[in-house]
Amino acid sequence: MKITSTTLSAVAAATLVLGLSACSKDSAGAPGQQAAGGVGGVGVDLPRADSDFWNAYSGYIPTKAKDLGLTLTATTNSTNDVQKLIGNVDNLTAQGAKALVIAPQDTGAIGPKLDELAGKGIPVISVDTRPDAGKFYMVVRADNRAYGTKACEFLGEKLGGKGKVIEFQGALSSINGRDRSEAFKECMTKKFPAITVFEEPTEWEGTKAQAALETRLSTDPDIKGVYMQAGGVFLDPTLQVLKQRGLLVPPSDPKHIFIVSNDGIAQEFDAIRKGEIDATVSQPADLYAEFGLYWAKQAMSGVTPKVGPTDHGSTVIEVPGGFEDQIPAPLVTKDNVDDPALWGNKK
């Protein structure tokens, strides 16, 4: 594979870990401990407000908290700024939050704050991203390396193993950006070495993806594939560029550029139905909200996660710093885009 741009550059508190105990969705915690609804609220920080995916996630939080019998101390938004996240976390704990659900986009810089919270006995659940350092109770995320692999295999097959592809990489300061980028590259190198991949760093910014696509189509008008690592921010800019260039055509047209995305928002599903894009990996915003809060409740009840399959169709693994609940994330194409079980189809 030819690369033509820049390449990839334990529990929240030990007092909560008293031994291995089963952790099904209905488990009530250790005997004699106060129920989660009575030990204080959960503080939630949202990572950004400029993404359809994260706005959907935000919408699920109040309902899922109510379903679980949890009180929300407050909800803040760190606008993709780790320093603001650290300040928000301080404010949430000052307001009495006994557990935190966050989604740090810079997975390296949050480590010291996690260790500080662990020392105070405040469990942290990280949704969507796994911190590179620091102690946490649980990470709730899908297997992001599988995202990159699925995207590679889909485009490789659609292009018949040859041609040119542009990849909008997420921020490489984020484990998600690194996982997706590294897996995509490894798969392309191994399975489709005749495909040229143009790696375009974007920092999860749609404007950067748009500029990269415009430039690349000018220098390489024969591009036949696009991998968008975040449909919530890359979809509209990408479709705008293709429409302006007369390339927004159905798959039956020889000019069609095959596009695979990540997120699973309703807008992506509509684009698949219209033949504007071809696939996406559905990252379950509803389950991220539900099980981020669920694990906060488990943590406040003193439950230690159990490694292995869960009763909600996922698998818990032990990772440096804590545990990870790996939520399923299916590939969505025209064949299954109308599946009512997909969160992007739920009203």
UniProtKB/TrEMBL annotation:
InterPro entries: Peripla_BP_I, SBP_2_dom. Residues 42-302 form the Periplasmic binding protein domain. Residues 1-24 form the signal peptide. CDD domains: PBP1_ABC_sugar_binding-like. Its main location: other. Belongs to the bacterial solute-binding protein 2 family. PANTHER family: D-ALLOSE-BINDING PERIPLASMIC PROTEIN-RELATED. This is Sugar ABC transporter substrate-binding protein. The lineage of its organism: Bacteria, Bacillati, Actinomycetota, Actinomycetes, Pseudonocardiales.
